[in-house]
């Protein structure tokens, strides 16, 4: 029964994607236990890695909603760990170079430290750039 329950839940989320929620982002959709409110009106969402001060990476659920980037520690959280208004930000894609380096999105907001998010591919970076412009 478990496998049937899982497959039916995936089918229902596919139908939601066709509504335009997180469109074309099958591999990026948060886990099943995710609170649907977090991604309800999202323009795009994915689990991305955020670069911290000393080069460590932390996995966050990143959602763009109402011209804001919201980052949650887990898909079960109700309150974002970080919120950044995207107006006035410059966002650029830094392509992967070498085995250890990742494709990165660098978000610079005047008067604040740059935020660096690692994305899975060049295509994913382009999707995020499209949504944020």
UniProtKB/TrEMBL annotation:
This is Actin filament-associated protein 1. It comes from Xenoophorus captivus. Residues 1-27 are annotated as: Disordered. Residues 1-11 have a biased composition (Low complexity). SUPFAM superfamilies: PH domain-like. Residues 41-133 form the PH domain. InterPro entries: AFAP, PH-like_dom_sf, PH_domain. It is found in: Cytoplasm. PANTHER family: ACTIN FILAMENT-ASSOCIATED PROTEIN 1 (PTHR14338:SF8), ACTIN FILAMENT-ASSOCIATED PROTEIN 1 FAMILY MEMBER (PTHR14338). It comes from the Eukaryota. Keywords: Coiled coil, Cytoplasm, Repeat. Its main location: cytoplasm.
């Amino acid at each position: 029964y478990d496998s049937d329950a899982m497959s039916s839940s995936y089918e229902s989320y596919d139908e939601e994607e066709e509504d335009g929620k997180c469109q074309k982002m099958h591999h990026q959709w948060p886990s099943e236990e995710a609170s649907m409110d977090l991604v309800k009106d999202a323009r795009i969402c994915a689990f991305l890695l955020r670069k911290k001060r000393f080069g460590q990476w932390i996995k966050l659920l990143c959602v763009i909603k109402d011209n804001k980037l919201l980052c949650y520690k887990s898909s079960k959280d109700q309150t974002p760990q970080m919120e950044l208004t995207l107006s006035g930000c410059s966002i650029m894609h830094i392509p992967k170079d070498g085995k250890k380096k990742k494709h990165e999105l660098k978000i610079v907001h005047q008067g604040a430290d740059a935020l660096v998010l690692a994305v899975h591919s060049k295509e994913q970076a382009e999707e995020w750039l499209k949504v944020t412009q």
